[in-house]
Amino acid sequence: MESQQLLAWALVAVIGAATPGVDLMIVLRSTLFHGRRSGFAAVVGVEIGHATWAVASLVGLTALLAASTIAYDVVRIAGACYLVWLGCMAIWKSLPRNRASTAAETAAPTPLKSMDAARCGLISNMLNPKVGVFYISILPQFLPTGAGTAGWGVLMVSIALAIGTVWHSAIVLAATRARGILTRERVKLWLDRTSAAVMIALGVRLATDH
C-alpha cells in the first residue's frame, strides 16, 4: 500500500513539474538569454521555493494561508505584480534603443546573472500561493496515518523536488542546445517579447484567479 502511495505521488509530482507555468518560463528565459549556468541557477531558486512551501505545508503554515483570504490575496497580488514587472522590463529591454546595451550582457553570462536568475526563480515561486495550496491540499492525501507521518512527508517532498529538478534541468539542457538558433537576432527579439507577454499574461491570470 505504501509503495503504491509513493508511485501515485511520484506521478502527481511528474504532472505538476511538466505542467507549463511560471517556473518553466523563468527557467527558459534564464537559459536562453543568459546561458546554461543561469538556467541551472534558476532551477535551484525554483526548487528552493518548492522546498520552502513543502516544509511549510508539513508544519501547517500553508494551512493558515489557505484559510485566510486576505493572506492568500496579498501573496497572490504580490506575485502577479512581480510577474508583470518582469514581463514589462523584458519588453522594455527588447526595444530598439535598449537592445544594443543589453546585447553584450546576454552574450556572456556572469556569476552575478546566475545569482539574479536564482533569486528570480525563488521569488516568483514564493509569491505564487498556488504552490503552497497544492502541497497543503494534495500532499496530506498521500501521507499514511499513524506513526512515521513526518518521515513519509520528508520522503515525498524529496521525491517531488528530485522530479522537479530533473525535469527543469532537462529543459535547461534542451534550451542550451537550441540556444544557437533561438538567440539569432530576429528570433531572439520575437522570443523575448513573446515570453515577456506570456509572463504578463500569467501575472494577470494570477491576479484575477480566485
Percent of residues in beta strands: under 5%
Count every beta strand, where a strand is a DSSP E run of 2 or more residues. 0
- Our Rg estimate from Cα atoms comes to 18 Å
* Mean residue pLDDT: 79
Low-confidence stretches: 104-112
Query: How would a textbook summarize the main sheet?
Result: none
What general outline do the C-alpha atoms trace?
A: globular
* Number of helices in the DSSP assignment: 10
Helicity level: over 70%
Q: Return the domain count.
A: 1
Class of secondary structure makeup? mainly alpha
CA-CA gap between termini:
35 Å
Write the element-wise H/E pattern from the N-terminal end onward: HHHHHHHHHH
Give an account of the 3D structure:
- With about 210 residues, the protein is mostly helical.
- The chain has one domain.
- About 85% of the residues lie in helices and about 0% in strands.
- The longest helix is centred in the last third of the chain and has 34 residues.
